[in-house]
């Protein structure tokens, strides 16, 4: 589903990713781990299409298509979803209104008809229940005054509503206590699907106790320096990044 | 379909950003070009006015000759040549019609393009429309139902003939003939406008609405509106404004006077979408308007709501004189300036009576190379014991070449007064836009969504059916303003 080859990405003059290669098939869950400043968030933004992240070399292929050539809103409509580390606030726009606008924008881009307010409300309510997102939260302005846990739950709720083919979760565990972490992980696990690929980006191993990946990649200095099964996370936890990063990949 | 999406479709269908930029080809009857005592006499004669009205106009004209155009606002424009304009233009052969069937179908077509299907409104919407086409009112609807309630809602030219005592009693008592350069000019040459009188204890049974439109080229429009709410009455009035696209600038200098007596309430809403000029700043309306409400009675209330998206230049300060004890004044404003538009707008709250309260919520949005200024005065006089004011002024910038300015004047001569002023300036953040894009919302729609969120408190004040229209306008006005 996703094929990244020798990817080089710069922000301004500074090269952040320096030849990253990665491949994910439908139904798989991969994790990217790495120390601060290794390029984890850059990877997530470049997949979603954020402006200012320049691909200087290499390619990203998504379902056979050149992903880099697509505008971010087109990528979303084609099933790419990024759960953000820092979800933004939009004052005056209710969460419900935002969800409806986003859902119908995606549907329209795919040539599907709009869902009316009642249908959206029904859909959102059903999904919100399992993630413990209250009716009251949906009425509040998007992310305004939300706690860290509420913001992350809302990200996962959007993932459940949009039903993406490729979901990238950027540090979804940051700022969560253990109960909130479990709730979010359950939400993510419920969305595991043979037709869906997931890329879980995290600094800490603890998230991977709850979302067990098929494969782990260690990112350091803009490259994948180590790869392995789920046991690699435990090794990282025990020995630290320095140990792995020093060894040749 | 979401509002923003509807906006998109609408714009795509029109294939042009300014929906109202069409010209209706109707033969016009015009006063000779230029402004002189003869022009004033010509207008007065055309309207069949009584002598006292002519005298009033002539006095204003005389006064105007000695006045200077104000230059304190933060707007720049070429000198207006007042002698090179037409001051009266009316569709030929249109004495006042008794029913819509008698109206020129071309005119009705124009209204349809404006989105005010008169017949439909008569049947469905419960909105009485006094449509002003250039200078003459051509159709007034719902008269019967209003008559029943005793509400007078008619062209001001008709009111001058039919209700001279009421007009004489109130005209020029809120905005005196001598008030300012543009108001005085209006007093001399105003051609038509609307008159509303709501009698004691009557709650006006429907929203009253007037659409103004400047059609003929090189004519100024000088409408005059007078609304009087007698003791214990209530009225809600909405005006919408559009003008066709032309390369030359057109002057619009209106005067609106509101009078609220004891326990009366007037709610006045404006959706102003005059032609703003093109992307290079060519053409557009010069909108120099004097709007003022007088809370003359105890416990009276006047509330202004405005959505200003059009005009090349906006110079407008809808104000409240809080004369009666316990009276309330409100001002809710959205001002959007894009491309080369310049807006200098705000309000004046003059607290004269005891326990008077005022509330100002202003949302200014600037994009392109536009300049947007909030200019407001809160003045508490010596006798205004326990006067209260709350002002909130928020500015939103889109792009890096526009400007937002806030100029609040606060004067208090009473130690018991409490005046609060809050102001914020923000930009549409790149991360907000990216968040929307990443969720599949296209850029223009994302801007519309964010800006509508920013304006929410003001949009909520508009009557329901007009709030929807205003939300769409916000989207259209800012099309292509990012990236």
Could you provide a short overview of the structure?
The complex is a heterodimer of chains A (249) and B (483). Chain A has 249 residues and is of the alpha/beta class.
Notes on the structure:
- The complex is a heterodimer of chains A (249) and B (483).
- By secondary structure, chain A is of the alpha/beta class.
- Chain A has helices at 40-48, 72-77, 95-109, 117-130, 135-139, 148-162, 178-190, 207-210, 231-239, 241-246; strands at 2-11, 14-24, 29-33, 54-62, 65-66, 80-83, 90-94, 141-142, 166-170, 197-202, 215-220, 223-228.
- In chain A, a hairpin with a 2-residue loop joins strand 11 (215-220) and strand 12.
- Chain A is globular, with a radius of gyration of 18 Å.
- The relative contact order of chain A is 0.18.
- Chain B has one domain (3-365, 427-477).
- Helix content of chain B is 25%, strand content 35%.
- Chain B contains 13 helices and 23 strands.
- Chain B has helices at 3-14, 37-46, 51-65, 105-113, 118-125, 143-149, 156-162, 164-170, 181-189, 430-438, 443-454, 456-459, 464-477, and strands at 28-30, 89-91, 128-133, 136-140, 152-155, 192-198, 208-213, 223-229, 234-242, 249-252, 255-260, 265-273, 284-295, 301-308, 313-316, 319-322, 328-337, 342-351, 357-366, 371-380, 388-397, 403-412, 418-427.
- In chain B, the strands form 3 sheets. In chain B, strands 5, 6, 8, 10, 11, 13, 15, 16, 18, 20 and 22 form an 11-stranded mixed beta sheet that branches.
- In chain B, helix 1 (3-14) crosses helix 11 (443-454), helix 2 (37-46) runs antiparallel to helix 3 (51-65) and helix 11 crosses helix 13 (464-477).
- Residues 1-16 and 119-126 of chain B have low confidence and may be disordered.
- The interface between A and B is medium-sized, with 35 and 27 residues.
Tell me the layout of helices and strands.
The complex is a heterodimer of chains A (249) and B (483).
Chain A: E1 2-11, E2 14-24, E3 29-33, H1 40-48, E4 54-62, E5 65-66, H2 72-77, E6 80-83, E7 90-94, H3 95-109, H4 117-130, H5 135-139, E8 141-142, H6 148-162, E9 166-170, H7 178-190, E10 197-202, H8 207-210, E11 215-220, E12 223-228, H9 231-239, H10 241-246
Parallel strand pairs in A: 3-10, 3-11, 6-9, 9-10
Antiparallel strand pairs in A: 1-2, 1-4, 4-5, 7-8, 11-12
Helix pairs in contact in A: 3-4, 6-7
Chain B: H1 3-14, E1 28-30, H2 37-46, H3 51-65, E2 89-91, H4 105-113, H5 118-125, E3 128-133, E4 136-140, H6 143-149, E5 152-155, H7 156-162, H8 164-170, H9 181-189, E6 192-198, E7 208-213, E8 223-229, E9 234-242, E10 249-252, E11 255-260, E12 265-273, E13 284-295, E14 301-308, E15 313-316, E16 319-322, E17 328-337, E18 342-351, E19 357-366, E20 371-380, E21 388-397, E22 403-412, E23 418-427, H10 430-438, H11 443-454, H12 456-459, H13 464-477
Parallel strand pairs in B: 3-7, 6-8, 7-9, 8-11, 9-12, 10-13, 11-13, 12-14, 13-15, 13-16, 14-17, 15-18, 16-18, 17-19, 18-20, 19-21, 20-22, 21-23
Antiparallel strand pairs in B: 1-2, 3-4, 5-6
Helix pairs in contact in B: 1-11, 1-13, 2-3, 3-9, 7-8, 10-11, 11-13
